[in-house]
Each structure stands twice: as structure tokens, then as C-alpha cells.
Amino acid sequence: MLQVFSSLTFLFVRLWYEIIALFTCHCVQNVKMVVYRSDTKLQSISGKPYTGPAEIMDAEGLSARVTPTGTVTFQYRYRWNGTPVRLTIGRYPALSLKEARVMVGAMRAMYSEGVNPKIILPMKMAY
Q: 71 and 11: one domain?
């Protein structure tokens, strides 16, 4: 009986992840966002005229907004009480991709503890 329950749980979890993956791909295609995984993409964009998508997604809520003049700004995107929030972290290259990922990890930890990162971040930057 326990083995049947484990198998059904595994299948349910797998199906759930596939549904999420399909939904995520559909959203990314409709919004026309680009996913990046390295600093090379940002180096090629920064400080140069840019005509691509205005938002470049990474992972875990981290995204980069790019202006037509090539200014790259990191943002953390999340929902607080059902409302979408964009929290600006910093600009590239003053803030590296690695540092932005570390900051987003810390903000996700605060979020999972029930603390709004938007309230805490200005306090931490003041010190």
C-alpha cells in the first residue's frame, strides 16, 4: 500500500512540474523575454545602443531591465499579498550578475520568512 502511495505521489509531482513548465514557457513566449545565464550577454549589451527585449530574465525572480541606451538595471520580481512588486537592486556593471544573484537569494529567504524585502532592503543599504 505504501509503495502504491509513493508511486502516485511521484506521478502527481512530475505532472505538476510539467504543467508549470508548459505554463512558464507559454508566458515567456507571450511576453517576449530573453533568458540569460552568463555575464557575457550583459557585457555585450551594457553601454551600447540596444533594440532587443526590454526585460531579460534570469531565475528565481531576478531580471534585468535594459534601456535603449544600454543601461542595465537588476530587479527582483515577486508578489506581495497578490500584488506584483519590482524591487530595483542595482545597475550593471557596478553590481555584478553574481552579486545580484546572491542578493536575490537573501531576499527570497526574507520573503519565505514572511518579511517583505521592499521594507528591509533600504535599511540594509543605509548601513
A: no
